[in-house]
């Protein structure tokens, strides 16, 4: 992904709030003489690493929503979390032939990158040349240039061959996670995933002008979720024969809205004019491979809603010590979004709760992440953020005063209060 730029094009902001990535609170070496970056050997700075790992837990909020691949479903994407490697990555990819991730390749002359905790160089996790970021899951992720302001339409794309072609008219669940790297000086409003039945090795490194199967286009290049792991998903009815998957920005420079990060020092000269995104947890799952038991009807759908009353979202529950949702939560989240869509004048307050394991401060922070997870899913489905408020109570308001695992699971919850 060697992309040296000396351009000073007059880029303008497209509006939005000032962005401070939580990853930027950590000290890193400044750019050296001649703008040649010094190698960051911070992996051996154990104290800093502990702070960063703690920060990642506290700040990686809007990563909403469950992944079903690790619950026994048949994921058709090989090496979906970029955990496997033929050779541990040492630095950024300068030549396409160096990009060696089992199951993955570059379909153009662009050079995407691999990051893994095994690295002793500049391609590690959480520390690497593009920023500081824990993997969404596991120890690895990939990275690509999604946009640059040099006027050359430079792009990078990830490509994999599915384990089996898609079956015509069958329904598939598609999802992936993406995150703006903390050293990127620009953010953009879009990214996509495309499924095709054949592919070719393209010699240029420009934009692929395709209409992506799964297209994420935000209202703004900068959102409350920018800098955190974000979630792209859809249900897809196959045309039949699709066996290749591509990820990247398929829009032209003219169609891509961007935002220049304000008041952030340049940490990486190669990202001074670019939006660089990490990719993780790519899923293509046949629907018949995802058994879902019908949950109980949400309480707030059982009759007339009472204002200023707390409703337990009883089918939205969390794993122990985590803000990741259990699979049984998915159905109720969609019903919640549907209800809010049909009641556009109603606002909602989400309150997060934990079980009785852990300290008060930690549990309050964790309960905040849980409420934010639910809020993030609602906003990702089109509910305006201005309609949502978030509160956290930690373990101070248990539903069940017991210490059994069943009781603790019930206490790990989010409640909703509807207000006019």
TrEMBL record:
CDD domains noted in UniProt? OmpA_C-like
Instruction: List where this protein forms a coiled coil.
Output: none
Query: Where's it mainly located?
Result: membrane
Q: Does the keyword Nuclease apply?
A: no
Show the Pfam families listed in the entry: OmpA (PF00691)
What keywords were assigned to this record? Answer: Cell outer membrane, Membrane
Q: Which domain of life is it from?
A: Bacteria
Compartments where found = Cell outer membrane
The protein, known as = OmpA family protein
PANTHER family the UniProt entry points to:
LIPOPROTEIN YIAD-RELATED, STATOR ELEMENT OF FLAGELLAR MOTOR COMPLEX
Q: Where do the OmpA-like domain residues begin and end?
A: 305-420
Q: Which GO terms describe its cellular component?
A: cell outer membrane
Q: Does the keyword Membrane apply?
A: yes
